[in-house]
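W.,

You were right to be curious about this one. When I first looked at the sequence I had no strong expectations either way, so I just let the prediction run and decided to look at it fresh. Below is the sequence, 366 residues in total, followed by the output.
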Amino acid sequence: MQKLTHAVAAWTLLAAVHGAGAQPTLTGNEPPPAAAPAPAVYTPPTWPTPEIEKLAGLLTGSWKTSAPVAEQGSTATIDVWMHVKPIAVKGLTGTLYVEQARADAPERPYRQAFFQLYPYKDKVRLRTLEFRSPSTTGMMTGLWQVPQYFPAVEAGELIATIDIELTRSPSGYSGKTPYPYPTNLYGAVEMTSEISISPDTLVVQDRGYDATGKVVWGSGAGDSYTFKKTAAPYKADVRDNGLIVIPFRTGTGDLKVAEGNRVGVHYTGWLTSGRQFESSRPNNRPLLYNHPRGVVAGWSQSLEGATKGEVRKVIIPYELGYGVNGTPKIPPYATIIFETEIVSIDVLPKAPSAPAAPQGDQPQPK
């Protein structure tokens, strides 16, 4: 069993122990479109060289730790997922989006970042790029499955952290940081990272050193974190009417969201630009409604059949949302994205039937 330690470099798992941070609320106004926008299209990044494009293909996909990782300071263990998808960043080439999460909380990734692959002399370097401010990362979660809806990201929103210099090998690539990088985390003054990449295995070693050169966090000598490429734990349901449902986490119980039930839902809503327009979470006031009344068609359709505790991300086209007119918060023709969590389902009592009219004293037709 591997131990989850204070590894905090390119492939850090540490934040998984402590959970994800709160997602900030975005502000700003969206200009209303003059007409219905064109359908969303996925545009992959450009690759500096054919070799880098091939290396990106090795990294692309879903990876899971080969063995449960022990939580820091606990006997509990967790599986960790990492999803990698080529996503363009304006002003850069060779970029891939990276999302890491505990297996028990896929909707709350503890790390969202980018890798950049670029040529350096006769080798290739992998650079890690972190968000300067996680202003849209909550909306990004899970959208690697439907990258046509991933919000635009510019180079200025990211900050480079470390480089790993890669060398070709018969099975793939391997490499390490060309020199120690400064850090002040957990008593370390510098850190290093090593990696090996093959078609189905990714092995990582991160270490932090104190001023005497002693390892104070990360993999010990001979220790590493191993990820295996495998099928993703959830899959986007893309429907013919344009509605998309990403089922992050299943719920429990036999009672499902259906007509006639009183449903409580925690939610956060975004526009495709990444701007958050509403959330029930800051004030802990879930939406209560009698399904399917009082909500847009895309909402009711996307939650049909969900059970208590179920978490879904839903993408609602304007035809199933707020239409050509929009609302004060939502522009006309807007595609909207919600993350939803079912917190309660109750069966509404049936209305009593009207008493039957007396028969004997009724006037008879002539």
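Here's what jumped out at me. The chain has two domains: 2-230, 237-347. And, maybe more interesting for your project: The helical segments are 15-18, 50-59, 137-140, 297-303.

Coffee later to discuss?

I.
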